[in-house]
Design goal:
Layout lengths: L11 H27 L2 H27 L14 H30 L7 H32 L4 H7 L3 H30 L3 H29 L6 H12 L4 E13 L2 E10 L5 H16 L4 E8 L6 E3 L6 E3 L1
Parallel strand pairs: 2-3
Antiparallel strand pairs: 1-2, 4-5
Helix pairs in contact: 1-2, 1-4, 1-6, 2-3, 2-6, 2-7, 3-7, 4-5, 4-6, 6-7
């Protein structure tokens, strides 16, 4: 049975971000030193990539902390969408500081090639970086897989449609980092074997293109949630069942759900109450049910209204929202 996304345990994604920050800072410093010593275009691209990732973790840290603030009078829906704002900044940083720099350096190497040396240093740094990046990726993968298992999804599907932009960014950046390291190794190796800087320069451009694709995907996902991302049919069915399981609700004729932050939902529903309560009691009952629905860990705000007798019930049995008579 499909379930709703549960709010992550306090600090779970924050730990993933901190691990990624430490790893990227160490790797960026090592790659920068190797780039200077070897003159490799691929190593320079990888250094730019890692410094971009390191800076991005700061944005992702802010995304986690600021989005966790409780709602107040100035923000009745809470601060959840802050996560998408700061994650958007991180994605732009990946594009400009990572992708653009890598592509430009690769093009410069093609137009004005420079000889490379000390290939052993490059190989050692790439190997160490692969191990460190692998540790960070495993942390992100485990957390993503756990969330996917809870929601009965594939891990990659969870990465793409999850409402948690911070975890998606860390997962995508770490995956891109591992692929980029393989590309950089190939570029350095071919440079050494052929004596031509062209493969190294092409490797730098390939790394840049890879980062650009990842950045565009992350930007698009954050854009969707900022403008009001709806939920999947599975989550919609699960919340509909939760509403109908309430003892005071007889029918559900309308349901609107949208994310207002990572694992935080705004719920609007039209319902028919059990019995035939007087008007003043109906208002009190609706407010009470709203508060009870908001006790669920994913419902940030619930707004209920009354259904009219001629409105059909919603049917979720076919796997999608539809009205049935």
């Amino acid at each position: 049975m499909a379930q709703t996304e549960k709010r992550k345990k306090p600090g779970s994604t924050l730990l993933t971000v901190i691990i990624a920050f430490v790893v990227n800072a160490l790797v960026a410093a090592a790659k920068s030193a190797a780039a200077v010593l070897t003159g490799s275009a691929s190593m320079t691209a990888e250094a730019a990539h890692s410094w971009a990732d390191t800076g991005n973790q700061v944005f992702l840290f802010l995304a986690e902390r600021r989005s966790a603030k409780p709602r107040d009078l100035a923000h009745p829906m809470g601060y959840g969408r802050e996560a998408y704002v700061w994650s958007m900044f991180a994605a732009f940083g990946l594009f400009t500081a990572g992708a653009v720099v890598s592509i430009m350096h690769g093009v410069q190497q093609i137009l004005a090639p420079e000889p490379a040396a000390d290939f052993a240093v490059a190989y050692a740094v790439l190997a160490a970086a692969f191990v460190l990046e692998g540790i960070s990726f495993i942390q992100a993968f485990r957390q993503t897989r756990a969330a996917a298992h809870q929601l009965e999804r594939h891990t990659l599907e969870q990465v793409m449609i999850s409402s948690d932009p911070t975890l998606r960014a860390v997962f995508a950046e770490d995956a891109a980092a591992l692929i980029g390291l393989v590309v950089a190794f190939a570029g350095v190796f071919l440079h050494q074997v052929t004596g031509s800087p062209l493969p190294d320069a092409v490797g730098s451009i390939v790394v840049g293109v890879l980062l650009a694709v990842v950045a565009v995907v992350l930007i698009d996902r954050n854009r969707r949630f900022l403008v009001g991302q709806g939920v999947t049919p599975g989550i919609e069915r699960s919340l509909a069942r939760r509403v109908l399981e309430h003892g005071d609700i007889a029918r559900l004729t309308y349901l609107h759900l949208e994310f207002v932050g990572p694992r935080r939902l705004y719920l609007v529903a039209a319902v028919d109450l059990q019995g035939d309560l007087p008007e003043h009691e109906v208002a009190v009952a609706l407010r009470r049910i709203e508060r009870e629905l908001e006790d669920h860990e994913t419902v940030e705000e619930a707004v209920l209204t009354l259904s009219t007798p001629d409105e059909p019930d919603l049917d979720f049995d076919a796997g999608e929202t539809r009205a049935s008579s």
